[in-house]
Specification:
This protein is α/β, with parallel strands linked by helices. The protein is 42% helix and 14% strand. The relative contact order is 0.17. Bound molecules: S-adenosylmethionine (SAM), 6-(5-methyl-2-OXO-imidazolidin-4-yl)-hexanoic acid (DTB) and iron/sulfur cluster (SF4).
């Protein structure tokens, strides 16, 4: 046999919940070994993809997501603002590029975008792209026509999270269904836009819900190119403001399991880094996380300061992934073909 690696064995879409629960619960050294083996088969483990986030339309959202400070339905929500002007967004994008970001992600607190707002967002995408940055937006639900418009504007990624398992979803959000999320994801995929889809850990979900989320993500017809794993940011005034904290080892287990189940995807250590120790960050990277949001703010909540991330990556001997390395399909395995053959044989 001349094949140098066997992606057909690594890339699966037939996970069962039991199998995923068993993976998450493996003895930690075994789980980490499996995650690292797969990580190295598809990526250089010293490289981290860097994205920057900007809230282009903050607050006043009609949805009732229990974790979100932007929902107008919670007792204390962030102040509602208008959609930003294109030039102000481009100014932020230039700064992000200067700070080393490869991708610029723009988020809007909408259930679904209105036609005239989508025109403005398309202008933003064209402008950001012309600066040489990859583009990502998250705007809520989309139909096929809307995804086509975004594709025509040159959008690279669309972020739309499943957040949790189908069973637990109704306890977190009542204003839309899991199936509506899946429909948007399929419209995004059909338009030829890369999918960024993940979830949140720490909303009171149990092992079966965590396994259910990862199972649904990995059993999509194609794995999302980017899988953000958010650790809940507990915001006062939201229904989950007092949720119980998740211990770091449990969180690392989710990252490692995501890496094993979706080995070709970028697994992003997304929200929740602000209160995470350097040691927890290091374990997440060892578990296969290879993407982060940089910059002092996520959408409305704080994120580690730039110098802290720089120091951390430097202490770990890690560095930002250059854009060509981050593009799907151009990734060279970080190990030799010989080593890959040995790993497959073992
Ligand atoms: N309104 C759009 C939507 O919900 O799809 C886009 C913006 S929304 C803020 C993007 C994602 O941020 C959510 O799907 C959720 O996963 C994440 N998120 C929001 N609030 C969070 C929090 N407090 N902690 C962690 N993640 C959060
Ligand atoms: C994602 O999965 N996490 C980001 C991005 N996609 C849009 C958002 C995190 C938001 C955290 C809460 C806030 O800052 O408002
Ligand atoms: Fe609105 Fe998105 Fe926040 Fe839900 S997560 S309340 S849809 S901004």
């Amino acid at each position: 046999m001349t094949a140098t690696h066997t992606p057909h064995l690594d890339i699966r879409h037939d996970w069962t919940r039991d199998e995923v629960e068993t993976l998450i619960s493996l003895p930690f050294p075994e789980l980490m070994y499996r995650a690292q083996t797969l990580h190295r088969r598809y990526f250089d483990p010293t490289k981290v993809q860097i994205s920057t986030l900007l809230s282009i339309k903050t607050g006043g959202c009609p949805e009732d997501c229990a974790y979100c400070p932007q929902s107008a339905l919670h007792e204390k929500s962030v102040k509602a603002e208008r959609l930003m002007a294109v030039e102000s967004v481009l100014k932020e994008a230039r700064a992000a590029k200067k700070a080393g970001a490869g991708r610029f992600c723009m988020g809007a607190a909408w259930r679904t975008p209105k036609d005239h707002d989508l025109d403005t967002v398309c202008e933003m995408i064209e402008g950001v792209k012309s600066l040489g940055l990859e583009t990502c937006v998250t705007l809520g639900m989309l139909d096929a026509q809307q995804t086509e418009r975004l594709k025509t504007a040159g959008l690279d990624y669309y972020n739309h999270n499943l957040d949790t398992s189908e069973e637990f979803y109704g306890s977190i959000i009542s204003t839309r269904t899991y199936q509506q999320r899946l429909d948007t994801l399929s419209n995004v995929r059909d338009a030829g836009i890369n999918v960024c889809c993940g979830g949140i850990v720490g909303m009171g979900e149990d092992l079966s819900d965590r396994a259910g989320l990862l199972m649904t993500l990995a059993n999509l017809p194609k794995h999302p190119e980017s899988v953000p794993i958010n650790l809940l940011v507990r915001v006062e005034g939201t229904p989950l403001g007092e949720a119980e904290a998740v211990d770091p080892i449990t969180f690392v287990r989710i990252i490692a399991t995501a890496r094993i189940m979706m080995p070709e995807s970028h697994v992003r250590l997304a929200a929740g880094r602000e209160n995470m120790t350097d040691e927890a960050h290091a374990l997440c990277f060892l578990a296969g996380a290879n993407s982060i949001f940089c910059g002092e703010k996520l959408l409305t909540t704080p994120n580690p300061a730039e110098h802290r991330d720089r120091q951390l990556l430097s202490a770990l001997g890690m560095s930002p992934m250059v854009q060509s390395e981050a593009e799907m399909g151009t990734m060279r395995p970080a190990v030799t073909e010989e080593a890959v053959r040995e790993m497959v044989a073992s």
